[in-house]
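Q: Hi! First time doing this. I have a protein sequence and I read that you can turn it into a structure. Is that right? Here it is:
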Amino acid sequence: MSKKVLITRIIPSLAYELLTQAGFEVSVWEGVGAMTQTQLMERAQQVNALISLGSNKIDSQFFNACGHLDIIAQFAVGYDNIDVAEATKRGIPVGNTPDVLSDATADVAFGLMIAVSRKMFYLHNTIAKGEWKQFEPLKNLGIELHGKTLGIFGMGRIGLVMAQRCKGAYNMKIIYNNRGRNEEAEKRFGAQWVSFDELLEQSDVLSVHSVLSDETRGLFNKSAFAKMKRSAIFINTSRGGVHHEQDLIEALQTQTIWGAGLDVTNPEPMHATNPLLSMPNVAVLPHIGSATVEARDGMARLAAENIIEFYKTGNVPYCVNPEVLKR
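A: Yes, that's right. Below is the predicted 3D structure, encoded as structure tokens:
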């Protein structure tokens, strides 16, 4: 009897093809938007494995209803929507999709940095509103990036690619704060580990690439922004919950910091009346960090491979709680 897999949203067909070829019976939620929690639990009760997205809430209530699952494969790098501790307690491995979206997400962070430094989004909108009239030497001035200091919070795979982009394009000095030292970043780019306060105080551009956890939730708040340079640019392409959005708005309104580029917001989606959208020194995108054909195909492949390999060998190639595999 073949194992059944539920994919909770329509994702690239590669995942479906790989699983079907491997003998799995695959069902896909084809409704508009995400399933309700009740729909998710009802559908998950009928399968052996789940490919989930970040919009799915995989919490203790879910596990109480669906504790029979053999494996959960997250279609993302981040997994803050999943109660991993509860999954581990129940012996359920959780897989994710690292590496394949590092370039795509770093490109968005890099692009936001440039867009903010030259007020690109805001100035584009002034043209659309018919406000471009004549050359004014002291108007619409941005700031240059060459030789500035890039601070990275979370020097993982994506942070490393961001450092590479900034070092190569602008010869930026690289500093970072991480739970541990990243020897590759230090060797390749001369990156220097600094304390969190030093990161805030020294960065001309501060780019966030961390996970969302109890330690990082709301970490970039009024107190943190107050320690940054008044000329600093804040970039977040990780999770919206890492920054306190109202505090960020106030920091920009009071010129505590110079600008901000966001691919993630809190909440998501952002409301159309949010004041960030009308600020000259701000650029906001609708969480498109992994939105390339190559990255999404890669995510689909890894999600499928996590499930296929688990049933084939008992191993999960990209597992966030590998201790369950040793039981």
